[in-house]
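From the pipeline queue, job 12 of 40. The input is one protein chain; the requested action is below.

Action: predict structure.
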Amino acid sequence: MPTTASAAHSPAASGAGGAPLSDVTTSESTLRRFLHGLPGVDAVGLEARAASLGTRSIKTTAKAYAIDLAISMIDLTTLEGADTPGKVRALAAKAVHPDPTDRGTPTTAAVCVYPDMVATAKAALKGSGVKVASVATAFPAGRAALPVKLADTADAIAAGADEIDMVIDRGAFLAGRYLEVFDQIAAIKAECADKARLKVIFETGELSTYDNIRRASWLGMLAGADFIKTSTGKVAVNATPANTLLMLEAVRDFRAQTGVQIGVKPAGGIRNTKEAIKFLVLVNETAGADWLDNHWFRFGASSLLNDLLMQRQKLATGHYSGPDYVTVD
């Protein structure tokens, strides 16, 4: 199975009417026609399905598996103006050994930091297998000239970032300048080349409609995203079951058309084990088991890990630990 977005531009990858998907990005008008030709989203049906899947419950052995899987999918994140090297090193230590009393606890997938903290995180994580992700491209607003965004990306990669989390220019997208957004994503993807995987953040809370989220998902995938990501975590509405379900449908349909698998990352607002498991159910029931792996699904989170660790210990011992069991990030 192809795993790189370049396959989406092969003649075999076809869009509406059987035309090659590469043709839909040749002009603003063809791209607009394609994006606005995507099926409209039934908002009531989408939210009802997300709510229905959220009622599923899993027990005992399956729950223990889900908790460990969720831990392994976390991009443990600190994106504050007050971040220090000491805080980043402490976060890296937690990512490698989330529960120091139980070395059987999985590591997290990555530590996500600002570009100036990448070198610190990289050194702290050396040899652990935990990736370093870095937000770039004028995060969180995404309002900067392309040369600035490219320099931001290049700086993070030079410092050792394995993954780049870029934000789209929502103003350009909402104004209908789809080709401009496409070209910027493609340029950042080219900067990443084979050095870093690219996660494209839509800030779904600012896109206003589910139709826009579907269009942004396809736009990001056509432009070369390795992951599509809901949010920065810096606005009022971040990841929700409904917007994540919609993005999972998009990656499922994209792979059906192109053979290319794209990851999904809900970020912001997922704080406890119950919520995390609901998202894993969404993944399994919508995209399928192929996405139940941290190469294809991530949680952008800072506080979620603590609750997962508390629930993990409860399953192992039958009781909750005291408040000093987990570190406060």
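Job complete. Confidence is low (pLDDT under 50) at residues 1-12.
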